[in-house]
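Q: How would the structure tokens look for this protein?
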Amino acid sequence: MIDLDYLAYLEGFLTENRKERFEAVLANRTNHFTIAVEDVYQFHNTSAVMRSCEVFGIQEINIVEQRFGKNIDKEIAMGAQKWVDINKFENISNCIQTLKDKGYQIIATTPHNDSCLLHEFDVTKKSALFFGTEKEGLSEEVMSQADGYLKIPMVGFTESLNISVSAAIIIQDITTRLRQSNVNWQLSEEELLEKRLLWAKNTIKDIRRIEQRYYSEREK
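A: Here is the predicted structure in token form.
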């Protein structure tokens, strides 16, 4: 449970404009969709996918790094790492099982012939969309465990797009259609409070000193 007194205390250090901005952004956040990125060699692409999640309102991104342990490219992410939840996994099996346990269907993005076209994708189902490496695509494990496949319609000679471009196109499309649907896609009250608390902590400078002051005042 969120300590509402603690939240109110921290938000007292924020401007009214900042608090209103948090509320406006959170009103458009969703966990109905989540994104998973598997072993992307060029990590600036993962950072760009993270930025697309933030811009279009997907709250969580799942990063699987079995082969290429790299850090977030903060210049590409443009601060998105402060506003989205990043779940890291050392192997794809744990990532898939974790997302299934949360009730997500696993959707592999691939130009596979049996793939569903983007405009036909059912946005009412809670879905985890997987994106793979630049050259090899998704692993066989993801492909074999996927509940469905999704592709972007293309009419040119080139058969694939850069992962960050593909993710941006797909995320923008499905989130736009989701908000136009009757699905209860917004964050729960508890999730909203959790994000308000986390974002306040990410915003306040010298947060440790502020926290220490709060707890020391409570002990008096």
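The chain is about 45% helix and 15% strand.

The first helix runs from residue 4 to 11.

Upvote if useful.
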